[in-house]
Design a protein that fits this description.
This protein has 16 helices and 13 strands. By secondary structure, it is α/β, with parallel strands linked by helices. The strands form three sheets. Strands 5-6-8-9-10-11-12-13 form an eight-stranded mixed β-barrel, surrounded by five helices. The protein has a two-stranded antiparallel ribbon with strand order 1-2. Strands 3-4 form a two-stranded parallel sheet.
Length: 444
């Protein structure tokens, strides 16, 4: 029973007893029985109140802890509850704390921060040009951490601000301990990544690309892994985003491209055969944007002796979208050198087949997310059929990545897909195992 309900019960009993006592016609014994019954009900209500009181003490203790945590927020902005999103949904506090602090639900909108963001969204004039901007805001609360120095508070607010940027910008984030732990882990990984370049800890693995018309290996895709001294073999997704962010991707990517070209040329020379027709290497957005990219690739081809027609450079749709006319010029130069170009993960970006028609693309790689459901989802099958048909009309070959089953392979053959890649044929292999696979000349 809560306090309001208890008060109502007391009033009800008092009125009942008062009414009984005013009745002159009622017998004394009956009157006493009624009063006794009323007080028994009152006793029961008192016991319920005591139980509720104990629960309330615990609740109040928890709420007081919550209140203390957010007190400085209210000092900063007494007319608004800051730890909410733009829709007014509380993200970092609970409704009990808000109620006890006297904050009405209609005020739970983070008014001051939203006002700041709205003001900054307004255009302003700069040298006669109308300019628009947004703000990413980070908040650190002195009540959540026992800060010893002001710069520590600023550091955590800065961390929260970068988190806001990472989550899409034009928003605000409240610092928490997870952010600090993630920042430390990221700094450690960056330090390890820099040492990895010096210590030659990177490894190139090779996954077969299979020709569906010849049923044999056409070539390989070179995939970069990191043999971390403590964490073991790390996948590209574990460190490539950080390498891009820090700019380390330039030296790492250059090394990977050189190593892949060197290895394939070594296989071709050793076996006196052109059995390996293609080696595909991924080129990131930052790598593509380098002003001396063409010269770097020329130097690698010269030093390894690999014929340019053997090399396939894989780029994502975002490379084309974000580089515009510059992308066209670079791609045409690469084509003139004899290098083939492939669009990786098609279907996950922002481009279209119509847009790609304007670029010298030879191969279209259908993303694995489409292939994984090809046998169980008729819509996926129809989408893939349309992509393959249109790609062929635009003069492009099609490679399906992520092939895992015989059923998927059979359907791709029916759709006249030229190439396939995936664990059904082989997982990515180190150079010695890949060479052994070459020697067996498998058929599918």
């Amino acid at each position: 029973m809560n306090v309001d309900a208890f008060s109502q019960e007391i009033k009800k009993l008092c009125l009942q007893i008062q009414g009984l006592l005013q009745c002159n016609g009622i017998k004394a014994s009956s009157q006493q029985d009624i009063i006794t019954e009323a007080f028994e009900e009152l006793h029961t209500a008192m016991e319920e109140l005591l139980t509720a009181s104990e629960e309330l003490k615990l609740t109040r203790a928890a709420v007081e802890k919550e209140r203390q945590r957010y007190q400085d927020l209210f000092e900063f902005a007494p007319d608004g509850y800051l730890v909410t999103n733009a829709a007014g949904i509380i993200l970092e506090a609970n409704y009990t704390a808000a109620t006890l602090l006297g904050v009405h639900q209609k005020h739970l909108v983070g008014k001051p921060l939203i006002r700041i963001q709205q003001e900054l969204k307004l255009p302003f004039e700069l040298d006669g040009q109308e300019v628009f901007t947004t703000a990413s805001i980070g908040i650190a609360l002195s009540s959540t951490v026992d800060y010893k120095h002001p710069e520590e508070l600023l550091r955590d607010a800065d961390t929260a601000m970068y988190r806001a940027k990472f989550l899409g910008r034009a928003r605000y984030e409240l610092f928490n301990s997870d952010m600090y732990a993630n920042t430390l882990a990221k700094l450690q990984l960056e330090s390890d990544l820099r040492r990895a370049i010096e210590r030659l800890e990177f490894r190139v693995y090779y996954q077969p690309i299979v020709s569906l018309t010849k049923d044999s290996i056409l070539g390989f895709e070179a995939l970069l892994y990191w043999q971390h001294p403590e964490r073991g073999l790390l996948n590209p997704a574990d460190f490539i985003p950080l390498a891009e962010e820090t700019g380390l991707i330039y030296s790492i990517g250059n090394w990977a491209l050189h190593e892949a070209c060197r290895q394939v040329q070594a296989w071709r020379m050793c076996h006196h055969s052109n059995f390996i027709e293609k080696i595909s290497v991924n080129l990131s957005l930052k790598q593509f944007s380098q002003p001396d990219l063409i010269e770097q690739i020329r130097q690698i081809l010269r030093s390894t002796g690999l014929d340019a027609s053997t090399l396939v450079l894989e780029i994502t749709e975002s490379v084309i979208v974000e580089n515009g006319d510059k992308a066209t010029a670079v791609l045409l130069q690469l084509q003139e050198m004899g290098i083939e170009l492939s669009i990786d993960d098609f279907g996950t970006g922002y481009s279209s087949l119509g847009r790609l028609y304007n670029f010298p693309i030879s191969v279209l790689k259908i993303d694995r997310s489409f292939i994984s459901l090809i046998a169980s989802n008729s819509k996926n099958l129809e989408i893939i059929e349309i992509i393959i048909t249109l790609a062929h009309k635009l003069g492009m070959d099609v490679l399906a990545e992520g092939v895992e089953t015989k059923e998927q392979l059979a359907l791709l053959r029916k759709l006249n897909c030229e190439y396939a890649q995936g664990n059904f044929f082989s997982i990515p292999l180190n150079s010695s195992v890949a060479e052994a696979l070459i020697m067996t000349n498998p058929r599918w």
